[in-house]
TrEMBL record:
Lineage, highest ranks first: Eukaryota, Fungi, Dikarya, Ascomycota, Pezizomycotina
Protein name: Dienelactone hydrolase
Organism from which the protein derives: Penicillium argentinense
Single Gene Ontology BP annotation: polyketide metabolic process
Taxonomy, superkingdom: Eukaryota
Chain residue ranges for the region called Disordered: 407-503
SUPFAM superfamilies in alphabetical order: NTF2-like
Biased composition (Basic and acidic residues): 483-503
């Protein structure tokens, strides 16, 4: 039996466990005898007592090994399980039985190959989380007729994009889709490792464990509901419902100083300057999210065709039909489980360059001989989108610094000729010409009836024609998802087919 264990109650890093001796045990399991050591070490660094148990023989020996985990617990102590792949499928089915979930305080399933019938539910006291990459998932269904259960069947269903930019879906438990990732995305030693998806899943998993051990509130769900209403439904009332009532809320879009302070000012801002003023082509992709006890920070990759005036970003600027790609950072604080303030930042100079209002080569007359403004266009956003420090990459940083140093050396050498003016092709960044253009993101959708459910959209590839300077982006629209109380996962039996079936 492969076991890795560390007891580090003094390294809890702010986590307050409800266990008797402040020791939180986490059992990691997968179908392999060896597991990603870096992932194990990261959980140990969080102060957890980590035990790894491989799931062999189809899970036949898992229950016996689980006894050793429970035997090591003290009075009042619980344990959590993080399962991967086939082991995740087994654990979702195994712990759905209340008798098996005794003393289990949290269950996290990474890319299970099959999930239980979504009409079944876990014990209400058990926090459960699933990470579902790709476009399909197998569901184990069990028909019922006249109180009798039929034979269990395994069906492959399509996954629809989830709620908000985080793509959350509600099964019998919280789950998140990762359309741009493959199974294995969270393990550093796998070829499928995806740093963006892994970081998002990590944050959500930490939050689930905190719930299990100390019952922290789900601030991310509140923020997703707000973004759903603001970006994807254009619903004024639901957008405003998320803000505090007993205090004065405020929103500031810093580069243009748009927004408002107070509920009335926010209503005017959203009603006249934001909702319904987003380009149809806008795509949003969540790059990273940091959740704290009272604060959430989102890093978003945003792309759109400037086909309409956008008062909160480009006030007074008519449509230019130019392509814009930026990284937007939103810092949100919460009080009493509601939004209190939001500060939004982006590189406005980059936006102006991309819509043709600012030419870096047209520097004003100056005594220093500066021939180019130190600003960057869409390549800055692409650099962040494709950043992976674990991979060997060409050095895209400091290009403007190198250019400035070269001109300084030329000046010191008393050269009479000026630096050659960069042509349009030379102005393109090394990032644009060397990095693949893979702009995946969730499409902004507008509806005539703001109370109706948002239409789910496929996340599609966009190709950017750098030679012609024309960028295109396409998206296909699926059927609307029905709503019945809490939102469930709805899937299509076949691509392009009409009609939905509940997963």
């Amino acid at each position: 039996m492969a076991t890795i264990s560390i007891s580090a109650p003094g390294l809890s890093q702010g986590l307050l466990y409800n266990n008797g001796n402040n020791n939180a045990r986490v059992c990691i399991t997968s179908e392999t005898n060896e597991f990603d050591q870096q992932t194990i070490q990261e959980w140990q660094d969080e102060g957890f007592d980590v035990v790894y148990h491989p799931l062999n023989n189809g899970g036949k020996d898992y229950e016996s090994r689980l006894k050793s985990v429970k035997e090591g617990l003290g009075v009042g102590e619980n344990y959590a399980v993080i399962a991967f792949g086939e082991a995740a499928s087994y654990c979702l089915d195994y712990y759905m039985k209340p008798m098996n979930a005794n003393r289990l305080c949290a269950l996290v399933a990474y890319y299970p190959t099959v999930i239980p019938d979504t009409r079944q539910s876990f014990p209400l006291s058990l926090p459960v989380l699933a990470h579902l990459p790709g476009n399909t998932i197998d569901v184990m269904t069990q028909p019922q007729a006249l109180g009798l259960q039929g034979k269990r069947r395994r069906k492959t269903r399509e996954l629809q994009p989830g709620l908000g930019t985080g793509e959350r879906i509600q099964l019998a438990y919280p789950a998140f889709t990762y359309d741009y990732a493959q199974p294995g995305f969270a393990e550093h030693d796998m070829e499928e490792y995806n740093n963006l998806a892994a970081d998002l899943a990590w944050t959500r998993t930490v939050q689930t464990l905190r719930k299990g051990f100390c019952r922290d509130p789900d601030l991310e769900r509140l923020w997703e509901d707000h973004q759903e209403a603001k970006f994807f439904r254009s619903n004024l009332n639901k957008t405003l419902d998320g803000y505090v009532q007993q205090k004065t809320p405020g929103v500031t879009y810093t580069p243009t100083l748009t927004g408002g302070i107070g509920n009335q000012a926010l209503r005017r801002f959203y009603e006249h300057y934001f909702l319904g003023r987003l380009p149809q082509s806008m795509r949003i992709r969540l790059l990273s999210r940091t959740s704290g006890s009272d604060r959430i920070v989102d890093e978003l990759y945003v792309s759109f065709q400037h086909t309409d005036e956008i008062p909160w970003m480009l006030p007074g600027v008519p449509a230019t039909n130019k392509r814009v790609e930026i990284v937007l950072v939103s810092i949100v604080s919460l009080r009493g489980g509601r939004l209190y303030s939001e500060h939004v930042y982006w590189d406005q100079a980059s936006v102006l360059v991309q819509v043709g209002l600012l030419d870096p080569r047209l520097a004003p007359d100056n005594p220093h001989g500066i021939d180019r403004l130190p600003v960057i266009g869409r390549e800055a956003a692409r650099r962040i989108l494709h950043e992976d420090t674990d991979l060997e990459q060409e050095d895209y940083h400091n290009r403007l610094i190198r250019r400035a140093n070269a001109r300084a050396r030329m000046a010191r050498g008393s050269r009479t000729s000026q630096a050659p003016e960069e042509s349009g092709a030379e102005m393109k960044s090394e990032v644009e010409t060397s990095l693949p253009v893979r702009h995946k993101g969730k499409s902004i959708q507008k509806e005539d009836n703001p109370e109706s459910n948002r239409t789910a959209t496929d996340i599609t590839e966009q190709a950017d024609d750098e030679h012609d300077g024309v960028a295109t982006e396409t998206g296909s629209t699926a059927n609307p998802k029905p709503e019945n109380g809490d939102r469930k996962a709805y899937v299509e039996d076949g691509e392009g087919e009409n009609g939905h079936e509940q997963a």
